[in-house]
Structures are given as structure tokens and as C-alpha cells.
Amino acid sequence: MNLKQRFSQESSLLRLHYKENNLPSLMCQHIMNWFPYQPREYVAVFIGTDRSTGDALGPLAGMYFQSYKPRHIRVYGTIHEPVHAVNLEESLERIDKLHNNPFIIAIDACLGRSTSIGHIITEKKSLQPGTALNKTLPAVGDVSITGVVNVSGFMEHSILQNTRLSVVMDMAKQVSSILEEIDDKLTYVRIPTVIQARKEKTNPEII
Fold this sequence. Notes:
- This protein is an alpha/beta fold and 207 residues long.
- The protein has one domain: HybD-like (Rossmann fold), CATH 3.40.50.
- The chain is 34% helix and 18% strand.
- The chain is built from 6 helices and 6 strands.
- It has helices at 23-32, 57-67, 88-98, 156-161, 165-186, 193-202; strands at residues 13-17, 42-46, 73-76, 103-112, 119-123, 143-151.
- Strand 2, helix 2 (57-67) and strand 3 form a beta-alpha-beta unit.
- The N and C termini lie far apart (58 Å).
- Pfam families: DUF1256.
């Protein structure tokens, strides 16, 4: 399967194995094509819990990305302060209060077919956390990044607990690298017209 075949016809999905060469750059470029034309506040919500090896993908990625000290993306959900099923609604309410119409990137682990394990998937749609465990939780995000950590089908709780930590950690580092590249590129995103006008008014060009 070549790279073009891994894009959906509408370019609303990209699926790559976490060991794929240039994965962070490829996914960064793909995700940034979905960003709004006018810059907004940017938030990354890493969903999961450190109480389950497989479900720790989000908090681990959040911890790695937080250590990068992002300049443009606010982080919610780390190993020490996870965003999970119990506090998800509370966390979303907090985000809504603290940020003005933010553009949200949601990150979570998921289960899938055996041939999909190790794949990182980004989609131009909200994330529906808790689906694998039959939990009804609010949808999160404008775009999503999910990592297939193990196989689905039966005894999902046990499967998540028996997922290889090394694979989850490597996938989490790749997710963090994707967001690091996005954060770097946001430095060069065009300044909104209104901000540019204020800047020109404050510092008029001397002729």
C-alpha cells in the first residue's frame, strides 16, 4: 500500500504506522490543512488514565508534549493530571470557560483489528471517547488523533491492561512529535488582519 492509498478520498483521514518514516511531518501537514483560516486559541486534550497501560497513551503523550513547553497549544491531560471518563465533562467545561472558541485537537487510545495495532490515525472529526468500553461520554475536539494500541472484540478492560507499555510509550512520543511540529509551524501562521492593523498603527512606518 503506497502513501496515497492511505489517504481517504476526501482527505479527511490519514492512517500511518508509528514506525513510518517522517510520520510527524506527514501528519502535521495533514492536520494543519484542517486548521481554521483565521488563527484561534489552540487546545490539545489528551484523554486516558495511567491506571491502564493501553489507556495511558493520551496522558503519556500529554506529558511528553508538556515537557516540550509548547508556545501556542494549551495542554490538558497528563500522567499527573489526567483527563478521563470521570472528569471529562468537568474538564471540557473548564476549557470552555478559559478559552474563547478554541480549536481543539483530541488525543486518545483505541482498539482495532490486529492488523491495525501500532497505527496512528488522524481524522477531521470529533473524538468519541469510551466507545471501546461501551461508555457514553461527550464528543471532544475539532480534529482527533487516535492510536490503535491493541485488538478489540472482547474483554476490552483486560486487553487494555495487558497492552505492551513499550509500544504505548513509543506511540505517545510520536503523537507528541506531531504536535511539536504543529506548534512550531503556528509561530509562522499569518497574523489576523485586525492584529496586523493594530501593530501598524502602533508602529507606523517612517517615510
